[in-house]
Structures are given as structure tokens and as C-alpha cells.
Amino acid sequence: MADTLTIIDNRTGQQYDIPIEQGTIRAMDLRKIRASPDDFGLMTYDPAFQNTAACRSRITFIDGDKGILLYRGYPIEQLAEQSTFLETAYLILFDELPTKAQLDQWTLDITLHTMLHENIKKLMDGFQYDAHPMGIFLTTVGALSTIYSDAKRVHDEDGRRLQILRLIAKVPSIAAYAYRHSIGRPYIYPDNDLSFTGNFLNMLFKMTELKYQPNPVLERALDVLFILHADHEQNCSTSVMRGIGSSQADPYSALAGAAAALYGPLHGGANEAVLRMLKEIGTIANVPAFIKKVKGGSDRLMGFGHRVYKSYDPRARIIKQTADQVFEVTGRNPYLDIALELERIALEDEYFVSRRLYPNVDFYSGLIYQAMGFPVDMFPVLFAIPRTAGWLAQWDEMLRDPDQKIARPRQIYIGAGARDYVPRDKRG
Ligand code: ACO
């Protein structure tokens, strides 16, 4: 007999057998539970989607208790060790690791789409000199929808693939333009001889030299960080990508929305918030006082805690190793000691242990970015670049999924009942 959940409605005495598939019941099956014919049917109340699966996905698997992260079945540790960001992006998008020929073609296709329309420079120039790069990034990504009007054909598979290529190729260029704008330097065009991250470093940091030569350790470290950030199943920004995409909006508009969700300090803005927190703490001697404030509820230990991971975030473990390699080139980030002391105390403290709060991906990534020369407000943008691959894979999967419709949650209305309009001069 198939797995079922039997529910007896105490109001009517009626019994309902609700099928359980893949550890889940269908919320729509609860609608059958009605006390009377005009009863709408039972709903679930789940603010912040803490216990609701909104899709079936084949892309990313997380076991939050064991600290396991797999992209299409491949452990994140193996990908970080052996893969490259572009290869991982291909895997996430197309379900399998590419053959050599497929990878060469994919790399070439991406490389040929890195240039931005010249109008984008004018758009950039309109921003204040101190505009936050993430604000510039998400605005510019959204603006691309006005350039690629063919992107509206979201049900055309070849069309989707073209927009995917454009977006993955162009997000580093947008990020680099945003950075150059903020420091008043000329924009640098892509260099197609360089790797994905090597070219990104070129567009960020090239000065008067004829050819920019990226430092191979930093180029690889950035590539590893990009692999780690490429996807993370149904997080806040990915749900936004799917939510906007479900109305069949073009992917540029949907991705602008996803980037906006990522911007917040509880999500991808946490890496920036961590650095600001470390700066505020200032010295190791101030760590116990800061932890006390966190436990008192007046502060949050940024870069700690996760909705899904209730053990060490496997990405944080890899990032810690990458940090050591980067610091050998750049010199040690002086905030590292404060971060290590915070982690040491937090991992022993009952408050954090009982709530199962561990360092997440953002706790150490900012220290690396800062050592590499990025200003703090670029950190969320550095997250958005690789996550573009994940957002697009999830968007593509959503559009292919016959179960999906326009996203539209229900509500429990708790406002006033119907009442008559009161003329202005009659209001108390
Ligand atoms: N510092 C102090 N206490 C915390 C922290 C933290 N970083 N995170 C959670 N808690 C506490 C909460 O106060 C709560 O305590 P209570 O039960 O006494 O009320 C308990 O732990 C559970 O926390 P929730 O907020 O209910 O957990 P939720 O799953 O909603 O939030 C989140 C997850 C947003 C990541 C949270 O842990 C947080 O704010 N962390 C800091 C921000 C951060 O690093 N975000 C990046 C996450 S990774 C990413 O998005 C890429």
C-alpha cells in the first residue's frame, strides 16, 4: 500500500487519506478537507517557507545536518578541488559535466558575449560617484532587458540558451564597470585571451600596462570562490528568481529581482556586514563584549547561522583553506585573528551550540575579497556573479516543469470586515 497520512477531521468525523510522496504531502490535497460545502478547504500557514517545498529540483542537494552540498550529485569539495567555475556552471545548467569539446565550445560562447553595449557606459555614468555597486549591478542587469527584447521569448529553448550565455558572460563586465565607476577610472574592455576570472581581474584592476597578467593564485582562488557560490537550491534570491520568472518575465528582469534579494544583509549582503562587524569590534580584546551583546539580542553575529545548515557550512571549510593560499600572496588580513577568535568562542558557547549556529559561506569570504583588494561594498556583487549560473539553472528548470504555474501564495486575512466608507468630515 502506498504511504499515506490519515487525517480525521474532528469537526465532521470524516477521514482523509493523503498520499505521501518523497516525504511530502501535496498542500492541494488538504483542500479536500472541508467542514461544509462552502468551506474553502484547509490551507497551511508557513511564513518564510520554513517547511514548504515549492518545486522538485535536480540541481543542488543539501543535507544541512551533515553539512553536505552536492551540485548535480557532485560533492562541492571535489568540484572546488578539480573543476573550474565555467565547467561547474555548465554542470549546474545542463545536468552533466561537459566533454572536452563541449567545454571548449561553452567557454568560447561565453567569451564571445562578454562585451557590453556602449549605452551601458552612459547608464553607469548616471550613477552618483559613491553609489553602492550592488545597486548599480542590479539596475544594469535589469536594463539589459531593454537591449535584448528577444529575451521575452522565454518558452523558446534556443532563445533561453542565448540569454543564459549573455548573462553569465556579461555579469563580470557589469560588476567591473560598477567598480571602475566608483573609483573614477576608465572602463576596461574584456580580454578574450584570459580565463573567466582572469579577465574579470583584468577588467577590475588593469591600469596602463598593455596586457594585464592576473596573479595565478588569486585567479584560481576567485574561481574556487565562484564555484562555491554558484548555486544553493531554494534560498531567498533563488525563490525570487523563480517567482518573477513564473510570470514569464524575461530573465534580465527576473535576475535583477534575484540580485536585489541577494543584496540584503541576511543573505548575500552578509559578507559585507561581516567585514563591517569585524571593523567595529576592532581588536581581539573586544570579542567577549561583542559576543555578550549578541547573546543579549542587541546584535547578530554576521556570517553565522543558516536556515538549512545546522552544522558547519562545507563552503566555509573550503574558504578557510583558500584564505591561507591568498594570504600567502597578499599578506594576512588583520581581521582574520578577530574572526578566528569569534569562531572559537562561538563554537564553545552554549548560546550558539544550542541553536546550532556555525560559520556560513560569508564568514570568511569577505576577508579574502578584502585581501585581494576589493572594497567592502563590492562583496555582494562578487556573490551575484557566480550565483547568476544557479539563478539561471533554476529559472530554466522552472520553465520546463509542468507542475509550475505563476507563483501566488495564499493569505490568512486578519483585517477589518466589510464596512461603509466614512466621509472625511464625519471621521472621529
Ligand atoms: N547571531 C546571533 N543569533 C542568531 C544568529 C546570528 N547570526 N542567527 C540566528 N540566531 C538565533 C536567533 O536569534 C534565534 O534565536 P531564538 O531561538 O532565541 O529566537 C535562533 O538563532 C534561530 O534563528 P532564526 O533567525 O530563526 O533562523 P533563520 O533560519 O530564520 O535565519 C539566518 C537564518 C537569516 C541566516 C540567520 O542565521 C542570520 O541572520 N545570520 C546572520 C546573517 C548571515 O550570516 N546571513 C548569511 C546566510 S548565508 C547566505 O545567505 C549566503
**Spatial arrangement of strands, main beta sheet:** 3-4-5
List all distinct small molecules, including ions and cofactors, that are bound in this structure: acetyl coenzyme *A
Q: Level of helix content?
A: 40-55%
Write the H/E string, N to C.
EEEEEHHHHHHHHHHHHHHHHH
Class computed from helices, strands and strand pairing: mainly alpha
Summed up, the helix count is: 17
Structure report:
It is a single chain. With 428 residues, this protein is mainly alpha-helical. The strands form 2 sheets. A 3-stranded antiparallel β-sheet has the order 3-4-5. The chain has a two-stranded antiparallel sheet with strand order 1-2. Helices cover 50% and strands 5% of the residues. It is globular. The chain starts with a strand and ends in a 28-residue tail after the last helix. A hairpin with a 2-residue loop joins strand 4 and strand 5 (74-75). The chain contains 17 helices and 5 strands. It has helices at residues 76-82, 85-94, 100-111, 119-125, 133-147, 157-182, 196-205, 216-228, 236-245, 251-263, 270-281, 287-295, 314-330, 336-348, 350-354, 361-371, 379-400; strands spanning 4-8, 15-19, 60-63, 68-71, 74-75. Helix 5 packs antiparallel against helix 10. Bound molecules: acetyl coenzyme *A.
